[in-house]
Every structure is written in C-alpha cells, then in structure tokens.
Amino acid sequence: MYCPRRFALLEINKDWNENAFVVHAELIHEHVHDGSHQFSDHRKVVRSSIDVYNDLPEYDLYGILDCVEFIKNKNGVAINGLDGTYKVRIVEYKPKAPKDAAFHETDAIQVFAQKICADFVWKCNSEAFLYYADTRRRIALPFDESYDTMLKQYLNEMRAIMESHMIPPRKKGQKCSGCSLSDICFHKEEKYNVKDIVMSMKGVSLS
Q: Most buried in the list 1, 19, 183, 194, measured by CB within 10 Å?
C-alpha cells in the first residue's frame, strides 16, 4: 500500500537498508516481543509474538502478532491452553502517529490482515488496536467490508508482482523521504566530467 516498488525491492531483489525510522520501529518491536509484556490476571491473559495464519485461497496469509490480549468473557471463544472463554484483542505497536489523522491507513491494512488470520485461528471476531509509541495511545480500528475488498486487491497486486519478477516504476507523487530504501531505489550517478573521459580514452586514469 505504501509503495509497490519498495515491496518488489524487498521481496524480489531481497534489498534491505535501515534508517532512523526503521531502527526506532525495530527497537519498539524488540521490547514488545521480549516477553516482558506477557502476564495473566483474573481478567485477561496477555501474550506477545504469536504466530497466526489464514490458509483460505483468497488470503493465504501468515504472520506474527505483536501482542494479543485474551479477555475473559462468557460470550467469548475457547482458546487452546486456557481455561474458560475469551474475547480476542490484537494490539499492533507502531512508533509514530500521523499528525492529521487518527491512524495511518498503511498501518490499518496491516492490522486488518492480522485480524483475518486471528479470526481464522480462534474462530472469533477479534478487536483490533494500534498503539502509537510517541503519543502512548491506543486507537481502535473501525474495520468494515471495504477493508476486506482493499486487502484482497493488494494481495492480488503483490502476487502479480512476485510472479512477474519485475520491479515496478516509482509512482508519481510517491513520498520517498522517509523510506529506508531511497538510496537503493534512486541510483546515484557519477558527475559527468569531460576531462576524465578524454584522459581515459588516452589510457590515463585520474581516479
């Protein structure tokens, strides 16, 4: 959703590069996944780094949830390894909230994909939240049918790119300033120098 070209560089070329934004996000996720967020009390059971999947043909997804809260509820669902029934709540951690909206749509579609997997695994209708570290706030995500249509569209586009083995061109108006792959995506050309070219033709190297 953010950039098809970035997706292809990561998945087809296996390119990788880090910047401050990536490192910040990785540090947050390391803290979430280190086990310190796991606990149980009389009301809920909290677990981090949970594998989920949905192998229905229209999705065929798998991933890892940052945090899942199993909240005790008589109208909830049974969870393997736990006594009683629970409502399921997904919490995805992100470093920075947008300035002009409640949440980034790119974050929301990722969490919707997680919800599709969680609902498949636990046979539930899970709640989904984003937690932005800079504001220290949870944002409830108001999912509707439009997200399912959107997710399927992006999955089809992603699979088409993978099958083609082609790197798409940059989108017009694409915001690239915060992308960690910008140096890879924008190939830097050496300055044109006539003297160097003439001297190299004479067999003299100036470098």
A: 1
